[in-house]
Design a protein that fits this description.
The protein is mainly alpha-helical. It contains five helices and two strands, in the order βαααααβ. Helices cover 42% and strands 7% of the residues. A two-stranded antiparallel ribbon has the order 1-2.
Length: 165
């Protein structure tokens, strides 16, 4: 299920940033926000898919992943003959190292696509979050902007869930 800030019951969200007069003026006077490229984040894992290749030890999962990898490959090469697809699938099933390398390549390709297509504007529900003030608002010297979610764009802000794995 997709969780938005509005569906989670939030009516206000906050954005912490350093005090940069030009950017702040654009936001306040032109309703324009700056959305970051995922590659510019300080966390190298943000917005980057990662596949657990250890799961390939399970024959059923290995089969499922091999079929998925060939399906993804086929989207890039739609005219590829079925025998070539079956050869690729057989190679992935026979060689777990090759299958793991393939998943890593797919993950890296997806990360490049995400970085090229998407931008992110980080918001949070607690204006008093000291970590956000320290990290994003220039060690408590910046500003925190309050956004009302009765806005066609911001009411759809998606919740970010972090995985420990």
């Amino acid at each position: 299920m997709i969780h938005t800030a509005w569906s989670d019951g939030y009516r206000l969200l906050y954005h912490w940033q350093p005090f940069k007069e030009e950017r702040l003026a654009r936001t306040l006077s032109q309703n324009q926000i700056y959305c970051s490229r995922p590659n510019d984040f300080n966390d190298p894992w943000d917005c980057k898919p990662h596949f657990n290749t250890e799961i390939l030890a399970d024959p059923a999962e290995n089969e499922r992943h091999a079929s998925w990898a060939v399906e993804m490959w086929s989207k890039h090469y739609p005219g590829a003959p079925d025998e070539v697809k079956q050869q690729k699938r057989a190679m992935l099933l026979a060689d777990r190292n090759l299958a793991a390398m393939c998943l890593t390549e797919i993950s890296e390709g997806m990360a490049e696509d995400i970085n090229a297509k998407y931008r992110v504007y980080c918001l949070g529900p607690n204006v008093q979050n000291l970590l956000m003030w320290a990290h994003y608002a220039d060690n408590h010297r910046g500003v925190c902007l309050e956004f009302d979610l009765r806005n066609d764009v911001l009411c759809g802000a998606l919740r970010c869930d972090y995985s420990s794995a």
